[in-house]
Amino acid sequence: MADKPKPAIAQGPQLVPKIINGGIAGIIGVSVVFPLDLVKTRLQNQTVGPMGERQYKSIIDCFKKTFASEGYFGMYRGSAINIILITPEKSIKLTCNDMFRYYLTKADGSLPVFRQMIAGGLAGACQIIITTPMELLKIQMQDAGRIAAHAKAEGKEFKQATTMEVIQKVLRERGFLGLYKGIGATAARDVSFSVVYFPLFATLNDLGPKNPVTNATPFWWSFISGCTSGCMAALAVNPMDVIKTRMQTLTKASHEMQYTSIMDCFIKILKYEGPKAFFKGGACRVMVIAPLFGIAQAVYYVGIAEFMLGLK
C-alpha cells in the first residue's frame, strides 16, 4: 500500500492569510472577553486580610465594584496593549502549531497524539516572546484599580499610570529584560496549556461533520471544539496562571508579599492561602479562555483573510 502524503504546509501566499486570520481572531476574542479577564486578574491577585476580609467576594462582586468605581471604560484598562500585541501572539501560536504538526507528521500521513502534544508545546514556547511583555503590561493596568482601592481605604493616594508610563517605568528601573519578568512562569503556563489544548481541539474538530465537497468543518463545530478544548486546558493550568499573575504584578498593596521565583511563589501561596488559592479566578479564566479560543479557531478555520485577499 502506498504511503499517504503529508498535508501541505502553508507557505508563501498561503502563510500570509493564516497570520492575518490569527490576528483577526485574537482581536475579536480579546474585545469580547476582556472585562472578564480583568476580573480574573483581580481575583487571582487578591489575598485574604488579617481578619479574613476579602476585597472581592465573587466574580459578580468584582464586576459590580469595578464598574461602580471605574465605569465602563475601567473594565477595559490595559486592553489597548493587549489588542496591539494579541495579533502577533495569536498568529505565532496558531501558525507555529500548524508548522510543527506538518514537520512531525509521519510519512504515512498520521500524527500520533504524543507528536501533537509536542507540536502544541513548541507553539506555546514560540509565543512567549510576545506573551510575556504583553501579560506583564496588561496585568499592571488591570490591577491598578484594585491597588488604588486598597490605598484609598488606608488613606493613601495612588496614581493610576498610563500604559506608556508603565513601560517607561519598567525600562527605567529594570531595563529591557524587565519586560520579561515572569517569563519562566509564562512559559510553564503557555507550553502546558498548548500541550493540552491543540491535540484536544484537533481530535474534537475531526469528530465533527464535514462538507461533502470541501471536507471543511463547519464554523459552529470549530467554535464548539475551541470552547470545549479551551475550557479544559484553562482549568488544567490555572495554578500556573495564578503564579504567573502574582509574579508579574509589580505594584503590590501594603500587606501583599513579593516573590523571588516560581517555587518561592508556590510555597508562599500554599503556606499562607492553602491549595484552593491556586484555583482563584478559575471559573473566570474558563469563561475567558473558552470563548476566546472558540472564536479564534472558528475565525482561523473559516478563513476570513482568504476572502479578504480574494483567495476563496
UniProtKB/TrEMBL annotation:
Molecular functions per Gene Ontology: L-aspartate transmembrane transporter activity; L-glutamate transmembrane transporter activity; symporter activity
Pfam families named in the record: Mito_carr
One GO location term (cellular component): mitochondrial inner membrane
Membrane-spanning parts: 20-39, 178-199, 219-237, 286-309
Membrane association type: Multi-pass membrane protein
PANTHER family, per database record: AT03939P-RELATED (PTHR45678:SF5), MITOCHONDRIAL 2-OXODICARBOXYLATE CARRIER 1-RELATED (PTHR45678)
Protein's name in the database: Mitochondrial glutamate carrier 2
Keyword Ubl conjugation: no
Alphabetical GO biological process terms: malate-aspartate shuttle
Keywords: Membrane, Mitochondrion, Mitochondrion inner membrane, Phosphoprotein, Repeat, Symport, Transmembrane, Transmembrane helix, Transport
